Amino acid sequence: MTAVVVGVDGSPASTAAVALAVRVASERHRPVRVVHAFVWPLLHVPVGPSPYGPADGGLRHEAERIVGEAVAYAETCDARVSVSGDVIAGGVSAVLLAASRHAFAIVLGDRGLGGFTGLMVGSVAVQVAAHATCPVLVARGTARENGPVVVGVDGSPNSDRAVAFAAEEAVLRKTDLLAVHAWTGPVSTRPGDMRPLVYDPEQVAEDESRVLFEATAGLNERYPDLLVGHRVVRGRAAHTMITQSHGAQLVVVGARGRGGFAGLLLGSVSQGLLHHAECPVAIVRPTAA
């Protein structure tokens, strides 16, 4: 059974990530794998204890301590969840992306120390969310036990996967699902399409509402007890989803939607949420990265 992998570095943010990883794993009866990226061997620096210091000193022992403490904390979060830990030599992004190939999900904190310094303003989070072969969850904002699971919908295949993930998460959390669709005007759906200069806002709003309801059609049949709410908002998608994260347990989006450019693996909405959401964020990648 594939595990929920959580990256740790000893920071408070990575501790929050461990708690989120345990929750996701417990809901699905999966194990947790704690991973620390040990970059120092790549820099060819001594990693063992100093001859002038304690026997349990040195960078390698420090890395093992970080993992050991994270494993111990995970076990206190839910004793039913099986937890293991690994110190893996390599760069942070490379280690996490390799782990994603055999993981149910990757979980990260929103900022960190050491190997994860500058996570949200640097390249690590973007690289992992853009290239991981499994969903990526970022523990940020307020961790809540109540409130809905919110999912962004735009009618693209990526958002369809996000809807499926969010619906399952809402059922497992025993909460409601709120599907949100934002629009500002007619959009180009294929390369070379021109956006109309003149359009009927009421007709566009009706069309956009249809996108939302079609994306969630069939959920009530699959999950009869799931309460699904729908919200269509005229406005920028990133701002809308950040606003909807207030009071939510989790916000779920696809890695890139129908408005994105083909060469971009992570859209503006996903990046905006990674930086500004008020609750944990899940970014759902295509099945093949």
TrEMBL record:
Keyword Transcription attached: no
Domain named UspA: residues: 3-140, 148-285
Gene Ontology MF: a single term: ATP binding
Domain of life: Bacteria
Bilayer-spanning residue ranges: none
Keyword line: ATP-binding, Nucleotide-binding
SUPFAM superfamilies xref list: Adenine nucleotide alpha hydrolases-like
Family statement drawn from the similarity comment of this UniProt entry: Belongs to the universal stress protein A family.
Official protein name in the record: Universal stress protein
Species, as recorded: Phytohabitans houttuyneae
